[in-house]
Amino acid sequence: MLHSSVQAAASAVVEPPWKKRKPNPSPPSFLSLPDVIILNCLARVSKSYYPILSLVSKTFRSLILSIELNHARFHHKTQESLFSICIQLPDRPLPLWFTLWIQPDHIEKKKAKLVQVPSSYAPQEPLLVCTVGSDIYAFSQRYPPSLFMLVRNKESAIWRNDAPKMTVARVNPAACVLHGKIYVMGGCKENESPESWGEVFDTKTRTWEPLPDPGAELRFSSVIRKIQITQGKLYVRSNEEKDSVYDPETRKWDATAKAPVDAVRCMVRNIYYACRAKSFIWYDEECNVWKQVKGLSSLNKNYRSMIEAVEYCGKLLIIWYKFVQPRRREKTICCALVALEKRQNGQVWGKVEWSNGVLTVPSSYFFLRSSVILT
């Protein structure tokens, strides 16, 4: 009797509240969100943060490397300029692409470096793009060689491969647009027929036509640096001892003088600039004379062996190299970003936003070409 009463009393004892309380659920994780929402968030973040964000998780890294993120950035109009260079190293059979990664804006003393492609900053080699009207055409700059020419409308982010194929497979070709036609040269195997070294695509008739054979001396086997259009002629700037020029009117090739190696030129906001070993000048069209860019004495202290100069985000990006002392077996590729301002007195002033070495390479390396695209 006593035993049963004790049991009844024990069962009637109310458990303390802390025993009844269920543990709080863990707070929701950002990674628990659908991929489409994460992509929309990442598309609004500067690409300079992607190398750090790719370390957060495998999901982040996978999304950062995905083509869907490029589509999201296009949709949200958050694309950024991406500068890349292609170089040939002595111990590598194929050319390599490197992309310029600039530290985020909040860092006081900003620095940059060249990162080999592919990476979280640049998942693949940049495309070589040409614009004709409302359409953008693109060629592969990655191996293996391809017959395809991609095309998309300016209002779309989706590339199509429904354009007529080239006559030969190419990789790292050079291309330019003149009078609505796309001229493509090089990038094909040495054993292809000579007539296939260059061809032209008529965007109206959507047909390819081979260019005349330039001859063995001008049929460059290495990657062509660029094609410049001057007075209706195509100047092919090679990485070999000679350059060439093609006249579409006469359909003839000729050898031409190499571009000066002591200076590189480019246009920034409709003004021509020339970057030389120890000076920067700009061309005053009103006075028909070259003038000194003011405010760049810090960059002009040391001799520069110029490589390239391009417009980057409305500013002047210059690339040069210097030897690594004391044995000079290596070179350091250096970059500087210069903001430019034309003042009311007619002078152009420059301000160096950052300048530093971005990559060390063997002294026997070759610079092949550069590229600036939106991505």
From TrEMBL:
It holds the Pfam family Kelch_FKB95. Residues 33-73 form the F-box domain. InterPro entries: F-box/kelch-repeat_ARATH, F-box_dom, Kelch-typ_b-propeller, Kelch_FKB95. SMART domains: FBOX. This is F-box/kelch-repeat protein At4g39753-like isoform X1. It comes from Raphanus sativus.
